């Protein structure tokens, strides 16, 4: 099957489109993405409430919408069960699961141990990079655009996101954030109004769900992302997927791990 011709935008064009779509409802933003990019746009989601709202909206527009999720190898068992519930609820979606490179994971664990992320921020970022960032980079290759569930009120590093922007960290493809200006309350209102299934860990006090060892319920009054990497002090509540993180030690360790993988024989 021939690939669809690539739809190219520059920063100026995307900026103008972002202004035009800024006051539009999420459904209109999603429609724009589906009509503009066709089969070359996908929803990347870990099936938290934001991603589920976008999936439900997109499914009402196109039943075979492309959906990509990531299995880091450390997800809660509840997440795997919920993925299957999503498959049953939305028949026809093209759901693919991406995984980290097993050689990179072996090198990571062999050098630093299974739970390296508890030791310091640099090792936590390294684990996120191998298990999350690099697999998603590979999964986005060949796409022209992707939908995310980012909202401006989630964390300070996300406060300035636009509904449409060029993603220079992933080859200049278009990043579409339909819920950018929604609040958490609006997301939950949609979930309940439309009977959208949601991850069972929300009912146990979780407000942001990632890998099992790195996520906990939050206490009353805590920020939603306080349950992520809660043992860290003065560290970014990001893994590097949406917010590039640069520290000298982190880059050095990434290069060391990937260098070891490159030198190792492939065991296919």
Account of the 3D structure:
With 268 residues, the protein is α/β, with parallel strands linked by helices. It is built from eight helices and six strands, in the order ααβαβαβααβββαα. A six-stranded mixed sheet has the order 3-2-1-4-6-5. Strand 2 (66-70), helix 4 (77-89) and strand 3 form a beta-alpha-beta unit. It is globular and about 50 Å long.
CATH topology assignment = Rossmann fold
Mind telling me the CATH class?
Alpha Beta
Number of helices: 8
Beta-strand share of residues: 5-15%
Helix percentage range? 25-40%
Mean pLDDT: 89
The termini sit apart by: 28 Å
Number of DSSP strand runs: 6
Low-confidence stretches: none
Principal-axis shape equals globular
Strand order of the largest sheet: 3-2-1-4-6-5
SSE layout:
Blueprint: H1 11-21, H2 26-37, E1 41-44, H3 49-61, E2 66-70, H4 77-89, E3 94-98, H5 102-112, H6 121-140, E4 145-147, E5 164-167, E6 173-176, H7 184-193, H8 248-263
Parallel strand pairs: 1-2, 1-4, 2-3, 4-6
Antiparallel strand pairs: 5-6
Helix pairs in contact: 2-3, 3-7, 5-6, 5-8, 6-8
Summarize the structure.
The protein is an alpha/beta fold and 268 residues long. 40% of the residues lie in helices and 9% in strands.
Features:
268 residues, alpha/beta, Rossmann fold, 6-stranded mixed β-sheet, 8 helices, 6 strands, 40% helix
């Amino acid at each position: 099957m021939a690939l669809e011709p690539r739809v190219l935008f520059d920063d100026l064009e995307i900026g103008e489109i972002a202004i035009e779509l800024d006051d539009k409802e999420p459904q209109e933003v999603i429609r724009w993405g589906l009509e503009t990019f066709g089969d070359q746009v996908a929803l990347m989601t870990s099936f938290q409430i934001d991603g589920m709202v976008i999936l439900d909206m997109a499914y009402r527009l196109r039943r075979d919408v492309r959906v990509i999720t990531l299995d880091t190898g450390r997800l809660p068992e509840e997440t795997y069960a919920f993925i299957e519930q999503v498959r049953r609820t939305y028949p026809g979606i093209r759901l693919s699961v991406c995984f980290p490179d097993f050689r990179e994971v072996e090198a990571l664990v062999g050098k630093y141990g299974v739970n390296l992320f508890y030791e310091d921020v640099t090792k936590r970022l390294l684990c996120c990079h191998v298990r999350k960032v690099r697999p998603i980079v590979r999964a986005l290759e060949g796409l022209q655009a992707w939908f995310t569930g980012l909202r401006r009120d989630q964390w300070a590093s996300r406060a300035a996101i636009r509904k449409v922007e060029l993603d220079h960290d992933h080859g200049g493809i278009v990043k579409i954030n339909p819920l950018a200006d929604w609040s958490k309350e609006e997301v939950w209102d949609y979930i309940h109004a439309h009977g959208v299934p949601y991850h069972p860990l929300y009912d146990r006090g979780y407000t942001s769900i990632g890998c099992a060892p790195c996520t906990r319920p939050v206490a009353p009054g805590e920020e939603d992302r306080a349950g992520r990497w809660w043992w860290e002090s003065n560290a970014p509540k990001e893994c590097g997927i949406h917010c590039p993180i640069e520290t000298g030690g982190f880059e050095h360790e990434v290069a060391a791990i990937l260098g070891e993988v490159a030198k190792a024989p492939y065991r296919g």
